[in-house]
């Protein structure tokens, strides 16, 4: 009797809690891809960049993954594919996942003195992707500058955990949480049916019957590439403006973003609500060194009214009043524990993947209707001391279905990258105008998106 040949199965992991909604939300206009870029002091050598990528890639097993579809869920499967650096000539943040192809979920591109990594959000969040870029740049600069001693670089390099741990599962589905007591069950029952619970957990409920959420309207770019407006400014100067309003830098920029929309949108009637989504890095509350997604999303809103001045200070104060209670470990623990409970509910796990996809698409559609803007501030990023002087600036942006910005700082420079599916730039002109009136020097660059701007090149 012939022995059955044993089939080798590659390592695989289930998607983390945040990843499922990205797949449901993905579209031709919204690839769910984001980009980090770093400008170095010398023109990029592609051969050395490829050598650096080969080395770092071997250390990050998570980045070997391809996305597969099962009967009940999606999952990441380890592959034998090898990444290749490319010249950055295509539109930014093009799709990385194609259901009919087996592709890696990230790419590395270069242009002149810029090195960029683009990542499909299902694979990792901004923190995890930045770890990859930090290690890639350190290795590349070691090769590009022979005067850098390898031992000195190793001593100054921080060690990144490159594991594929699901930190949502680790922190919010402990043994005790699997055996919900009566009190927890009672609290969960207040959330209504499963689909409504999922929606409320992703974004707090919006009272659409009493508040009209404003949606900015513009002219879509012809080939789905986003309009990108980059602003650079001294980091301490912008921080001082936030301190003056007694709010965090993220909240100050969010309030200014809302005001820039109000002043530049001709159809804003003055009695509408602006709502914004703000991601929160859960690693600052729950220990995790995983390179996978580990964040939550909060929702803030401000309703303009005719019986008040609606000043920037008023908006900042209301943003802070809403944000602070959501930014506590206790609140996040309760929120995520409930969400993980429903993700692993026996009934939900038996629902076939295509039906889950439809349900999540409906949830995502309703979430989009409840938002005006999106913001993300990754904060300060640093590199090993021995190579840090060789990195001039860092940039961060993502694809967009609505006007949004991504912010990041390196050394004494703060960079805000606005992205939008529309060609109009009036919002960003208002934003920059406010900062310059406050005495902050702002450098602005804008990409080309229309046929006229591109000179007929698609």
How are strands sequenced across the largest beta sheet? Answer: 10-9-11-13-14-8-15
Count the helices. How many? 16
Report the end-to-end length measured between terminal Cα atoms.
Answer: 62 Å
Shape summary: globular
The low-pLDDT segments are 1-8, 175-209
Rounded radius of gyration (Å): 23 Å
Write structural notes for this entry.
The protein is globular. The model is unreliable at 1-8 and 175-209 (pLDDT under 50). The strands form three sheets. A seven-stranded mixed beta sheet has the order 10-9-11-13-14-8-15. The chain is built from 16 helices and 15 strands. It has helices spanning 19-25, 46-59, 126-144, 150-156, 167-172, 175-178, 182-189, 194-202, 235-244, 249-264, 312-326, 329-343, 346-349, 353-369, 426-437, 451-454; strands at 12-14, 33-40, 65-69, 74-78, 86-87, 106-111, 114-120, 227-234, 273-281, 295-303, 373-380, 391-398, 404-410, 413-420, 443-446. The protein is an alpha+beta fold.
